Amino acid sequence: MHRFEERQEMKKHVLVIGVGVLFLCHTGTLAAGDIKGKVKARGAKHNGDAVIFIDKIPGKTFQPPKEHATMDQKNLVFIPHVLPVLVGTTVGYLNSDDVLHNVFTPDKCAEKFNLGTWPKGQVRSFTFKEPGCVPVMLCNVHPEMEAFVVVLENPYYAVSAKDGSYTIKNVPAGKYTLKIWHEKLKGESQEVTVMESGDIVVDFEIKR
Amino acid sequence: MTKLLALDVAANCCSRETPHWHPHLTGGHMKRIMLGLIGAALLLLVSAGESYAIPAFSRKYKTSCSTCHYAAPMLNAFGKAFRNNGYRYPAGTDLEMTKEEPVSLGAEGQKRAFPDAIWPADIPGTSPFSVRAISRVNYQAIGDVKWNLELPHELELLYAATIGENFSVFGEAEIENEGGETEIAFPVFLQYDHSPGLHIRAGMVYADPTPTHLRLTRNHYNVASLRSRNGFRLRDDFAGLEVWGAMNGADGRGGFTYRAGIVNGQGSLADVNKEKDFYGRATYKIGGLGEIGGTEGSTSEVVDFFIDNSLTLGAFGYVGTASKAGSPDEDFQIYGGDADFWYDRFILNGMVMFMNSDITGKTDQKSFAYYAQGQYVLYPWLIGIVRYEWEDRDTDSDVVKPINSVIPAITVMARANVKFICEFKIPLDDANKNKNTFTLQIEFGI
Questions:
Q1: Which residues contact B403 (CB under 8 A, 6 or more apart)?
Q2: Residue A170 belongs to what H/E stretch?
Q3: What is the ipTM of this complex?
Q4: Percent of chain B residues topping a pLDDT of 70
Q5: CA B80, CA A50: separation in Å to the nearest integer?
Q6: DSSP-based three-state secondary structure for B274
Q7: Hey, what domains does chain B have and what are their CATH numbers?
Q8: Does B294 touch chain A (CB under 8 A)?
Q9: Neighboring chain A residues of B300 at a CB cutoff of 8 Å
Q10: Are the C-beta atoms of B37 and B19 separated by less than 8 Å?
Q11: Contacts B93 to A, Cβ<8 Å
Q12: Is the pTM of this model over 0.95?
């Protein structure tokens, strides 16, 4: 092999090793795992609609998503019933019914907003600015309609399915306080450690 | 809620609230008349006013009473649109809005087999029955018994349903205390719903232009209670055939309604004369929710189930014959107009009515009555009402003096289906001065 070719081959190896090192360093800083588990809701019809979320992460702030979250009004029901959002997120309220709907909240932390009414297929929106706020969403026209927006400080949250299962994906390695919110039930916070790889399982039991 | 007073109507005599027999008829003649009247009265007892507060619909759609009611039984704009669609959700969305799975009475494909198969339909998946109970604590300033605990006053077994795509039914079985008499009624109608613009109804029809059966007060509207000389009044019940319909305005707002019908008239289920009565009514609504609903053009910054900023103007007429024992038949004509103005939490409405009475051998008589009513939603559960009523039974007579009164009332919706009414009636004319009455009405529906 000529010296020139040897030099080129050496460069290739260095490049490959360098890329490999960089990749390892890179993945090392973003090491993340999932938090999974089950929620057992005692005294509720099902185990769903509980919000499991990581409490404050000191020193870190998160930008709200540019895309709006959506809460639908269809067949006289808010969908979803519980909508967790990162603080600063704008929620668009869609009227999918051919009847008049309204969205308002009596809660101060959401400025007691009242969006009026709008025709089928149209959207009105509101931006939630206060972390920790859990405003109830109501409809002036259909008093039985109810939903909740849970305003959180970071994007690490999940809503339990009816069978109680939940997954918070891609949580950076570290120690956190994992909390749970339910519209009627209460549960204890749990201290958790997310390793650089692998999932952890955290179950909750919530009751009145 | 409804007023039967069947014996009173049949006898065509006496006070408005206490039935008793005509005093001067005796012997065989009296016996025959009595038998006839008893028979007529028994038949009349099956009639009662139309009711609309139906918890069965709440169950069917899993929605609150407030979806359709300003405060039950008074309908809000959507409740009227729901009714105008034949007790269905507007814009053909009834199926998707129905939360109770109906029971099929025939597969959709049976339509293809027609006429060799019965046209398919469905019925509600659960019981269409509801119960409404009304109790009263009554006070009258003049009388031996000043306080009367009428607990209960009335019990209604209500039922309502749609049958497939084109039929609907509505009815009730009702037991009511009226002046110490227990009365039973079971009005019902079957309605063919071709479209919101065309319904054909058989059975109990809506000849009374006032919202008597949908009112929030204990006292009936005076124009509905005004009797002709032979005892006819609009608030009595009417069985017959009716064609009616509704449509939205050009921009999807407001709109037009009409109804026309033929009824037995006085006597309801058992006509007391050979003549049939005819009636008609039309309204035009400016602004507000469309008469048949939909959300087109309904953008608003202010919304509540009791708000429908609009003005509705109406006209009505009724032509009939009234009979009374010992008197020639009375031909009468009723006509009038009304206005209903809704703005934010405030409603102002009123109605004027003229009645011309023609009895062979007697001088023609003209009557005139009106009412004006204002109501305000202090809170969605607290409504203040004031009504002023005025009537002159014989406008050409100086002997028959006009009477008038004011009716202040407070309606408290303790729950969407539990209501209290505190109501005074204060006569203002000399003849009835100091005959003040007070009622605490307690209602619930389940």
A1: B390, B391, B427, B429, B431, B432
A2: strand A165-172
A3: 0.71
A4: 87
A5: 39
A6: coil
A7: 6-445 (2.40.160.10)
A8: yes
A9: 116-117
A10: no
A11: 97-99
A12: no
